[in-house]
Design brief:
- The complex is a heterodimer of chains A (507) and B (321).
- Chain A has 20 helices and 2 strands.
- By secondary structure, chain A is an all-alpha fold.
- Chain A starts with a helix and ends in a 9-residue tail after the last helix.
- Chain B is of the alpha/beta class.
- In chain B, 42% of the residues lie in helices and 20% in strands.
- The chains are: A mainly alpha (507), B alpha/beta (321).
Chain lengths: 507, 321
């Protein structure tokens, strides 16, 4: 049977009334837990694992797939409306999405994120169905040296989000590095920056940092300015959904986001956050409306990252289904669900469990359709949240952020960290330091460090490994072009417009 | 504060227990299981399997699982020691990883403070190489290690974990100084596997279950396993058979809190023993690649003490303690 035959068979498995109901339940539950910060898809699926004792394998995987995709949809809702990211993959969405919400375009931000998620999720799922064997070969060629070079490229690219002052941006980035380093060092097992506190040995959860800096910091800032009579939330302006020009500005970012998200998601150490950073940076570069970034909110900055995180969620399934490699927490727990059915996930999964795998892939398509149907009408309801007067709304955000953080590990230490970071976020906002680079530094810094040290250990301290590997060299070259390219281009432009005789120092 | 905290955390755990339905008023007791790790990991799966089998064997009428994760169990342990003291119906799941974490993190509490009930399962480790590797046997690997350990990068789990410990033990037996080893730690099983499949490292050490499917598919070659004897259906010698005098099980077991009465302790041991000898437990172990290595009461306490000494010594050699 060819791929299409398998897929048709998969749809036959997924299209039974019971399995459709499981899918509906999963997507609804996924959307709900995506909305709550703290409760992620990995934890939810872990808590639901006991149902594997009661129901057929197809049904439980369809449920889990629905939860997984649903969480990606739901996570963006709170990012946009409340500046409180529910998942680490939707942190970037908050940057422009929340600005849009506060300038009256919350409906459009939610719509572009739902439709973008649908488009990218569908492209990503098609990728899983048709490209998995090829993509996985590329993914395995990625060793520590290649990952480090990818991180270098990511650092260069995301310098776009550092804000107007690079000194302030870099300061924030380095604060992120330090927070990211807290905990036991994976390479040597030694604790760093834990101050003897056992609770800090596993590091600080990125969600707590994002919620603390964005939501709590923002709330404190608004409270401090309350009597200045500014910063009122603007009620919905224009159409509830997207206007024609917003459609025109969204479709290319969706496709680019999907193209970035899927392959990086398929990399064993790629993750869902890096593609959202890259997509945001690229959309900011390419946008014709740069002035809207960071002010009233640019729709491209929501459409791209949202598409990227959903495509990467599909990408994660590539190594899981083709090789049995769990490359995210959610995938690892889904694999342990396979084991409770006595199915050993591995390279033979596709051939020995074709029914199950293709049923799962088909249900991903169905989950996507259900999710967009479920989410679009909800937008009307969600944007009403923004009509709540500021004091009540921000009090609600604070309660929501606190409960969500407590939900992550039921640790009071996490709450203390949340409020310390909230205070830091307030001061950063007050003195005009951008907060997004903290998150970027916290995610990329430790990744770059780990991969660098792994590469050096494997190469026995030989630096040349970073340019001896062709793939690594290519990535470094791209990074170099990204770094000096714009300057050279600007210099050429200057020469062309002013004419050679006016260029100073060109003697 | 304490009560509210307990209340909230058990409510979260109770979410998973919802499908238990109303408890029948029987003689079977209600128990509480404490998991010093987040949901989803090895200890959590052990706890949920124990819970499942105990209920299907009608040994308990209901149970409640509490997760307090972090730092190899050393965040949860103090809570179990202090706040669960004297609870006769409580069990904590722990294992070799916690022994290592207590030593490496210089934790304030250790396993001599809790009441050993039973060692239940072990996962033996496997030494594998990529299919294209020149190493055909475990001896080839050790020979290369002796020649120049820096040229043999080995992938495994986090520094100081069971994989790293086994690598240290192998090197020690071969007379290679632990400080010269080139160990490449990976956070998740998937990442270590992809480094092996992509030929990024010379060899890999992890629980056999992590590699079994890749070995069956021919993508990895199994050189040796760390169990005490040959395993049915696994075509590889033990390390001992290959001339490397090392045996290691990443064991998991259960402990009662400190200060439980002798009757409670005896009842708990009896219950866990009955469970471990049931057919349902044997099936679960088989599905999950767990080797049943039952050991109870005082023998178990003695084993934990010996393992603590052995692990402490090797962690010192590896520069982690």
């Amino acid at each position: 049977m060819d791929t299409l035959g398998y897929l048709a068979h998969g749809f036959a498995v997924a299209f039974t009334p019971t399995n459709l109901l499981w899918c509906l339940l999963g997507t609804t539950l996924g959307t709900a837990i995506g909305v709550l910060p703290g409760l992620g898809p990995a934890l939810t699926i872990a808590l639901l694992l006991p149902i594997t004792y009661q129901v057929a394998p197809e049904a439980s995987f369809i449920l889990f797939a629905g939860i997984y995709y649903g969480a990606m949809y739901g996570g963006s809702t709170t990012s946009i409306l409340l500046n409180t990211p529910g998942e680490s993959a939707t942190i970037v969405t908050a940057l422009e999405g929340n600005r849009m919400a506060r300038s009256g375009r919350g409906g459009a931000a939610l719509a572009t994120s739902a439709i973008g998620s649908f488009v990218a999720g569908t492209i990503g799922t098609l990728g899983v169905a048709f490209l998995a064997p090829i993509v996985v070969k590329l993914a395995l060629a990625f060793g520590p040296a290649e990952y480090f070079s990818l991180m270098v490229l990511a650092f260069i690219t995301v310098s776009a989000v550092l804000g107007s002052s690079s000194v302030r941006g870099l300061t924030s980035l380095f604060v992120g590095f330090v927070i990211g380093m807290i905990g036991v060092d994976l390479q040597t097992g030694q604790p760093r920056f834990t101050f003897g506190m056992g609770e800090l040995l596993d590091g600080v959860d990125v969600i707590i940092v994002a919620v603390g800096l964005f939501a709590v910091g923002e709330t404190l800032y608004v409270a401090s300015r309350r009597y200045a009579g500014k910063d009122e939330i603007v009620p919905l302006r224009g159409s509830l959904y997207m206007t024609a020009s917003e459609w025109a500005r969204s479709w290319k970012p969706w496709l680019r986001g999907a193209a970035i998200g899927f392959p990086i998601g398929a990399l064993p150490a790629g993750g869902a956050e890096i593609p959202t950073f890259l997509s945001y940076a690229i959309e900011k570069k390419l946008s014709k409306h740069k002035e809207e970034f960071g002010t009233v909110g640019a729709i491209e900055g929501v459409a791209g990252p949202e598409a990227a995180n959903n495509a990467s969620a599909a990408g994660v399934l590539v190594p899981m289904l083709t090789l049995g490699l769990p490359t995210s927490a959610t995938a690892a727990i889904m694999l342990s669900a396979f084991q409770s059915y006595g199915i050993n996930p591995g390279p033979l999964l596709l051939t020995t469990q074709a029914n199950l795998v293709w049923g799962l892939i088909a249900s991903l398509f169905i989950a996507n359709v259900i999710l967009v149907i479920l989410n679009l009408p909800l937008i009307g309801l969600w944007v009403r949240l923004l009509k709540i007067p500021a004091p009540q709304l921000y009090a609600g955000i604070l309660v929501f952020a606190t409960v969500g953080t407590y939900g992550i590990s039921q640790s009071p230490i996490d709450l203390i960290i949340l409020y310390l970071l909230g205070a830091a976020g307030f001061l950063m906002r007050r003195f005009d330091f951008p907060t997004a680079p903290v998150i970027i530094g916290m995610i990329l810094g430790p990744l770059a460090e780990t991969q660098f040290r792994r590469a050096m250990t494997i190469a026995n301290g030989d630096w040349t490994v970073f340019y001896r590997h062709p793939l690594s060299l290519t990535l470094l070259t791209l990074a170099f072009i990204g770094l000096v390219g714009p300057h050279i281009w600007a210099w050429i432009e200057r020469r062309r417009t002013r004419g050679p005789e006016h260029v100073p120092g060109d003697a | 504060m304490l009560n509210r905290r307990r209340f909230l955390s058990t409510t979260a755990a109770g979410f998973a227990a919802l499908h238990f339905g109303p408890a029948f008023a029987q003689d079977a007791p209600q128990i509480q299981i404490f998991v010093p790790a987040a949901p989803g990991g090895g200890w959590d799966q052990t706890a949920r399997t124990i819970d499942q089998v105990l209920r299907s064997e009608k040994l308990i009428s209901g149970s409640q699982i509490t997760n307090v994760g972090g730092a190899g169990g050393t965040v949860g342990l103090p809570q179990f020691v202090n706040q669960w003291k004297g609870k006769g119906n409580a069990l904590m799941v722990a294992g070799m990883v916690m022994v290592g974490a207590i030593i490496a993190n210089k934790a304030a509490n250790n396993l001599t403070e809790v009441t050993p009930i039973a060692r239940l399962t072990g996962e033996f480790e496997a030494l594998v190489v990529p299919a294209a590797s020149p190493f055909k046997t475990a001896n080839d690997f050790v020979a290369a290690l002796k020649a120049d350990p820096t040229k043999v990068p080995v992938a495994g789990g986090s520094a100081g974990g069971s994989d790293h410990i086994l690598f240290g033990l192998i090197a020690k037996t071969a007379g290679v100084p632990a400080a010269n080893l080139s160990y490449v730690p990976f956070a998740g099983g998937g990442e270590a596997l992809s480094a092996l499949l992509g030929n990024q490292v010379a060899a890999g050490i992890s629980g056999y279950g992590e590699f079994s499917e890749q070995v069956k598919a021919g993508a990895l070659r199994l050189l040796a396993i760390s169990s005490d004897k040959r395993q049915e259906g696994i075509d590889a010698p033990t390390l001992k058979e290959a001339g490397i005098d090392v045996e290691l099980f990443n064991w998991r077991g259960v402990f009662a809190p400190p200060g439980v009465s002798d009757e409670d302790k005896a009842a708990m041991i009896k219950m866990v023993e009955t469970m471990a000898k049931s057919e349902a437990w044997a099936t679960e172990c088989k599905n999950r690649n767990w080797t049943p290595i039952l050991l109870t009461g005082d023998d178990y306490a003695k084993f934990v003490a010996e393992d603590t000494t052995r692990i402490g010594a090797i962690l010192k050699d590896l520069g982690l303690a």
